[in-house]
Amino acid sequence: MAALLTSVMGNTPKVGQYIQDCKRMGIEVLPPDINKSYSTFTVEEGKIRFGLAAVKNVGVNMIETMVQTRKEKGEFISFSDFCQKVDAKDLNKRAVESLIKCGAFDSLKIYRAQLMGVYESLLDSINQDKRRKIQGQLGLFDMTGDTSFSFKKDPLPNIKEFDDKIKLNMEKEILGLYISGHPLAEFQQELKYFTSMNSSTINEIMENPQETEHKDGEKIIVGGMVLEKVTKTTRNNKLMAFIVLEDLLGTMECIIFPNIFSQHMDLIQEGNLIIIEGTLSLKDEENPKILTNTIKPLTKMQTQKLYIKIKEKSDMVLLHKAKNICKKYHGNVPLYIYIEKDNKVLRADRDLWVKLNHDLIQELSQIFGKESVKIK
């Protein structure tokens, strides 16, 4: 799998898809690390270590120098030690900032927030010291008489670490994907239940349009986070939008026409989590798109569940009487039907999930009996 990831290093959506495949197979993908990573993706104790060549702004020369320095002088014990050991001509602030943001120094037990505050001044001080040594002058760190000791500990500000959202956004900026987590990770179950298609399937359609079973105009449901939004004024002077929706596997394009846009302007802001019901647009020589029909917020499913007990399958006719009640109290609580005779449980369609309240329970109890309507 490491070789497969390396083969698609320049294709961020593919890398993201394969990383998700690894997770599904129980293979952990480790973040970039200055003491463990190489240029390519590598296998490390049955896990896969992220390749440094996939880190934005980090050049091949710098990677080769880092790996060779690590081999000759041992692992880096601090950020200062890293800056002191690696040849100054291969170090640049932009590359070092990228390594900080993607978490490559995390194993040194240093907060990214601390390094972001001091890396430029530390890098400048150490590079100046290197120049002094070349010129035969007494360097700043030579004054201690023990150069190795001088770099064991970094002079870091006493500040808190960035919150998880900021760290994940940094990873996305530098790696093109999230590696230590994902803003949608806690909604994985909801996306599984609420949607009928994901970005991976849409990307497969794009790569193999002749082999797909999906059709132009097909009704689909997708969900995720609004990554980008561009608005456009139509000939009728009305606003519409083009958005990039990101799920756990990648991104997809959605078109929101004026009538839908005017109804849901508040929902389609960047960073919002939404569910879109629409139609799949498959046109020759165009990337697949989703034409939006309805937009809803993506919310957590309730931990509670509503159960209705019936004696046997023939009693399913009673559910037709309950449909309007469930739709009247529509919500995010799953509805389950327990068939007593068969000892079987069925989950109702998402459209029949409910919002729990006293009136709902009363109305359902009138049809099925008080003892047959339970919340668990």
From TrEMBL:
<dbReference type="Pfam" id="PF01336">
    <property type="entry name" value="tRNA_anti-codon"/>
</dbReference>
<dbReference type="InterPro" id="IPR004365">
    <property type="entry name" value="NA-bd_OB_tRNA"/>
</dbReference>
<feature type="domain" description="DNA polymerase helix-hairpin-helix motif">
    <location>
        <begin position="26"/>
        <end position="115"/>
    </location>
</feature>
<dbReference type="InterPro" id="IPR029460">
    <property type="entry name" value="DNAPol_HHH"/>
</dbReference>
<dbReference type="InterPro" id="IPR004805">
    <property type="entry name" value="DnaE2/DnaE/PolC"/>
</dbReference>
<protein>
    <recommendedName>
        <fullName>DNA polymerase III subunit alpha</fullName>
    </recommendedName>
</protein>
<feature type="domain" description="OB">
    <location>
        <begin position="223"/>
        <end position="298"/>
    </location>
</feature>
<dbReference type="InterPro" id="IPR012340">
    <property type="entry name" value="NA-bd_OB-fold"/>
</dbReference>
<dbReference type="Pfam" id="PF14579">
    <property type="entry name" value="HHH_6"/>
</dbReference>
